[in-house]
Amino acid sequence: MHQPSFSWTDSRLDATQAGTGRCVAVLGYDGFSYAITDAQRQLQAIRSWNFSSLAAAPKEVEAMLEDILATETMLSLPYATKALALATPWVTLMPERLLMKNALPTYFNLLLPEQLEPLQYGVEPITEGNMVAVYAVEQTLFQLGARLMKDAVTHALCAVLVPDFGKITRGNNHTVVLHVRGYRGYISVFERANLFYYNSFQFEQPEDFLYFTLLAYEQLRMNTQEVPLFMSGDILDTGALYKILYRYVHTLSFLPPPDSLNWPGAQIGAPSHQFQDLLLLAASA
Description:
alpha/beta; globular; 6 helices; six-stranded mixed β-sheet; five-stranded mixed β-sheet; 14 strands; single chain
């Protein structure tokens, strides 16, 4: 059995009260994580598995997910609400008025690698700015997600992150927000809370990570000494990614947990921003 990379459970967690709680999960070939909250939006449990650090092939990840499905009994409880966010690199954002709903695969003809397995396509509104996210995800992963989180409302991860990031950045002329999952960065740029740039990138070394982050600043002619960078996900102030950014970007900050969610604090043993995607999903009900 593949052990979780992080696991925390509140001693007061009562499985018999699942019917009043909420279970949320984030799934991708880079990892799987889930969180449980009670009716008062108090966090009850977090568990996560990081597959990106294993350099596992898709079939190996699928086998590990099957193992999680068989052993994580908390996932099968009858919660009041459930939600699943799919972490896929194949996403494009556009104004809703330009969307061609009957031709979703055409948006990815030039982006996707050849000989990819069959894909599931979807569209989701981005509440900020009348935008929509068009996304593609492997059907195998999509189907595993449906089994892991039966009857859950499914989202594209970017549709969970971007609207909330826009709220956080109100009041700043320009703000960059960077979310990290494994070896992929999701970068958004806002002008007074209005999204005008979104991209994701794969990296292997801290220098790659720095290059793509600074590229966003350069493309939009933003000064790294003036425009702040907010961060969340798999980045810590003691790690190499933070340290290399610190040399070039003047103002670095970690995102706080959502106001509507009761974060337990130090007892968890990890910073809240590390689970920002889960927390935003949990607070979105």
